[in-house]
Amino acid sequence: MSSASIEKGIRMIREEIDAPVASFFTSCVHCGMCADACHFYVQTGDPRYTPINKVEPMRRIWEQEYTLWGRIKATLGLSRKVNAQDFEAWEELVYDGCSLCGRCSLVCPVGNDISDMIRKIREGFAVAGHAPKDLVGATRRAVEIGSPMGVRLPALEAQIRHLKHDTGLDAPLDQAGADYMVLLSSMEIMNFPEYLEAIARIMQQAGRTWTISSRAFEATNSGVQIGVSDIATELVQRVVDAAEELGVRTVISPECGHAYTAIRFEGPNLIGRPYNFRVQHILEVLEEFRQQGLLKTEGKETERMTFHDPCQLVRKGGVIQAPRNLLGMVSNGFVEMRDHAEMNWCCGGGGGVSANERADELKSKAFHQKKSQLDELGVEILVTACANCRITLEEGLEQNDMDIPVVGLTEMLAEHLVEEPGNGGDT
Amino acid sequence: MTADAILFFARGTGFDWALAIFVFGMLLRLFEVLSLGSKPDLSEGRGSGVQGGLKTIVTRTLPRPAIFAREPVRIINGYVFHIGFLAVLFLYEPHIELFEAKMGLSWPGLPTGIINALGVLTIFSLLLALTLRLSSPVLKFLSTGSDYLAWLVTLLPVLTGYLAYNHMLLPYTAMLAVHILSVELFMVVAPFTKLTHMFSFMLARWYQGYRAGHRGVES
Amino acid sequence: MITIENDDALRAALTQLDAADQRRLAALFVEDVLEYTDDTRIRHALSVVMRPNASEEELKAAHRTARAAALEAHARCGADCDWSDQSPYFVARAAEAATGKNAKGKRSALAWLVAMQCRMATCCEASETDPESEDNTCSAQRRIAAEFINSRKDNSNE
User: Fold this and answer.
1) How many domains does chain A have?
2) How close is the nearest chain A Cα to the Cα of C94, in Å?
3) Does residue A73 share a domain with residue A41?
4) Does C132 contact A at CB distance below 8 Å?
5) Which of A44, A233, A312, A357 could form a disulfide with A270 if both were Cys (CB 3.0 to 4.6 A apart)?
6) pTM for this structure?
7) Chains touching B (3+ CB pairs < 8 Å)
């Protein structure tokens, strides 16, 4: 990369340093406990994947720019300026070797939010031209087409027609004043379209109105994953404009982890103002329905099953109890992994890792952490609530020859809805 | 210079200068953090940032069971030398008298026999900490000269204090002078190393805890 | 002799079948949409299910193959994809379900779930080419199911 891009990268990293970041670097005692929390380190044994090491370039920039002692050291030639080689060496640590799962942040004894620092350092790497090319492509498609995977409105319309054909249910587009505006991730549309039917059936039973925006249906925020806030902002703005124009009360983030934290927490800070609507994850909505007695299910699965907690939903999203309450409605065989809820281990595919083909081998190694959790527990079904986790888990299970089906929670609930007579399509 | 002269310097000018550097240095480090500011969180909150911040300052003191299970020795050892160091510093009568003289505050101390034992425990704990640091691939990889310097300046006051109290190695006056100088070394070096964490950890825990409390997520 | 006129009837009929028959009928559903995929592993996996004397090991191997095919065919996160190219993925998913033991976590009959995946495969094709093909798949499935159930009845009467 040109020295101009590297300079831009360094400047961007500098801009990302705020008081919290400075307090984190000032407090880090090199205890290494963050490594013990990281599936990439634990499964490779490579100390470079120690979370705090992933932000070492940021630490050097902070020390040299924002501390007197650091400036003195730099002047005396006692510390090295971050350079092109550092960007090259750290790119893999920052993108391939981190799924932004946040487990390190939760265990740091001095309270460092290392995961957020990695999110921030990506801003510098992206602008320096050191983001993985697969993420660059996905982000470009997100901006130009509206979906990182090139999913266009006709595909969604085809699924909506299919839904009507098979179930008689509508998925109304651009309905002003609806209770909920549903977002969908490209991964769901392409790989798990059963999710759309599940939503439609649940909404019908709950008696709630819902809609999808024809111009802003994509939930995935590639800008957050790659670390380009301008793009992240634009993608959020599209959803905000659509939601506010339609006057919906709540925007539903689908079964996709990173989409949730992006729109729920980062979004207002990106666009610089609070929303005029609420954001809820689909599981939060379903939990509300459950509490209000609007979700009527019948039958319980008896197989031994467990829940893989999507990191962005549970640890970083705070939606911990809802999936458990909902699973309790349809299962008698639920057991927890030893490390569960906010301490569960990442599938390894989040934060752009699964989109990055270069990271495939590393992701496979990291999956062994999840494998060890499942081996210990011995279950017949693995339930989760994130389309990306689902595929990552399925791939990992397949690579390790483990025959455990992975099921989406919303879909599972819809499967157990009490059937109203005459429900279901009929041509 | 005679031992008496060094002791006189250490107790007087030396201490004043070291304390001034310590206080000024630490305040500067904290200022360097706080002056960068932070943006407010505009997302819809689920809870109180203040409660989250305050809670996290306290609760991060204890490790998560899952992490403790992976590193029980290193974690327990960390508690031992922290508690030992603080106990010897704050609960030894002659130290309390010093605080009283400087700040007008005083509190009950522990019997000197216990302090002596705690001192030994802390010394061994610090030696174990160094061994663990050198033998762990992650810690060896992360550690810089500054980490080892911080370790040394932390060990020396405890070690020399023990030697002075027990009238070992050097005549008492000389050993006491060395002890006080080692404390001054600690104070002078601390603001330039990770020893800043002794104050800044509250800020770090606060910032993460505040955001977590606001968002209603674990911290 | 039964005829199946609509999806309610189809669903009801499928729940009457035992696990082995569910799988065989499911395999027939997948066979009906095999034109949407070039993956020869699918046909081979289905042939195992269709054999009355297939062993547990052979069924497991067929399931593994179908599962691998489905994962290979999935739309990769962040990759440039096209909905109309997704049919092979849904055919593979259908084959994966048809070769599995039962539909874990789901109340619907296994054959019904497979039928739905097959319809989704047609939906991908339909979006670009033939909007009526979905109707055709639905009526084909009802016909296939009726023929299968009737032939089972005939066999058991003999």
Assistant:
1) 3
2) 13
3) yes
4) no
5) A233
6) 0.95
7) A
What does pLDDT average to over chain B? 96
Helix (H) or strand (E) holding A408: strand A406-408
Looking at the predicted complex, does its ipTM rise above 0.90? Answer: yes
Residue A422, domain member (yes or no): no
Residues A319 and A284 in one domain: no
Domain CATH number, residue A352: 3.40.50
Looking at A291, A313, A330, the residue that finishes a domain is A291
On the question of pLDDT at B56 being above 80, the answer is yes
DSSP 8-state class, residue A346: P
Q: Which of A291, A326, A358 is the last residue of a domain?
A: A291
User: Contact A103/A315 with Cβ under 8 angstroms?
Assistant: yes
Interface with chain B: mutation pick from A30, A63, A269, highest number of B CBs within 10 Å: A30
Q: What are the pLDDT digits (tens) for C81-136? A: 999 899 999 999 999 999 987 777 778 889 999 999 999 999 888 766 666 777 88
Q: Using a CB-CB distance cutoff of 8 angstroms, which residues of chain B are in contact with residue A112?
A: 204, 208
> Looking at the structure, do residues A258 and A154 belong to the same domain, yes or no?
yes
Element (H, E) at A67: none
Question: A219 and A312: one domain?
Answer: no
Q: How confident is the model over A41-67, as a mean pLDDT?
A: 98
In a domain? residue A420:
no
Q: A158 and A270 share a domain?
A: yes
- One DSSP character per residue, B164-183 reads HHTT-SS-HHHHHHHHHHHH
How many degrees, rounded to 5, is the angle at CA C110 between CA C108 and CA C112? Answer: 65
- Residue from B26, B27, B33, B197 to probe the interface with A (highest A Cβ count within 10 Å): B33
- Domain with residue A88: its CATH number is 1.10.1060
Same domain, A151 and A281: yes
**Each residue of A128-183: pLDDT tens digit?**
999 999 999 999 999 999 999 999 999 999 999 889 988 899 999 999 999 999 99
The shortest CB-CB distance from A32 to any of B61, B66, B138 is to B138
CA-based nearest residue to B137, from A59, C8, A47: A47
Size of interface A-B (CB pairs under 8 A): 166
Q: Which residues pair with A253 in a beta bridge?
A: A281
Verify that A217 and A241 share a domain, yes or no: yes
Q: A254 and A312, same structural domain? A: no
Query: Do residue B196 and residue A278 have CB atoms under 8 angstroms apart?
Result: no
Distance, in angstroms, between A211 CA and closest chain C CA?
Answer: 21
Q: Tell how strand A381-384 and strand A406-408 pair up.
A: parallel
Whether chains A and B touch (3+ CB pairs under 8 A) is answered by yes
- Token duo for residue A180: 């909920």
Tokens of residue B46, six digits: 């689920």
Assign residue C78 a region (left: φ > 0; alpha: ψ between -120 and 50; beta: otherwise).
Answer: left
> Residue A344 in contact with residue A337, Cβ under 8 Å?
yes
pLDDT tens track for A229-255: 999 999 999 999 999 999 999 999 999
- Output the pLDDT for position B3: 87
Query: A-chain residues within 8 Å CB-CB of C41?
Result: none
Indicate if the pLDDT at residue A427 is higher than 50. no
Phi–psi pair at A159, nearest 5 degrees: -70, -35
pLDDT tens for C5-46 read 999 999 999 989 998 899 999 999 999 999 999 999 999 999
CB contact under 8 A, A67 and B32: yes
Among A159, A355, A381, beta carbon nearest to C105: A381
Homologous superfamily (CATH) for B3-25+63-215: Transmembrane di-heme cytochromes, Chain C (1.20.950.20)
Model confidence at B177: pLDDT above 70:
yes
The percentage of residues in chain B with a pLDDT greater than 90, rounded to a whole number, is 98
Q: Is residue A241 part of a domain?
A: yes
Q: What is the pLDDT of residues A320-331, one digit of tens each?
A: 999 999 999 999
Q: Which amino acid is at C51?
A: R
Which CATH number covers residue A281?
Answer: 3.40.50.1860
Q: Which residues pair with A281 in a beta bridge?
A: A253
Q: Where are the domains of chain B?
A: 3-25+63-215
Give the range of the structural domain holding residue A175, as residue numbers without chain letter. 144-291
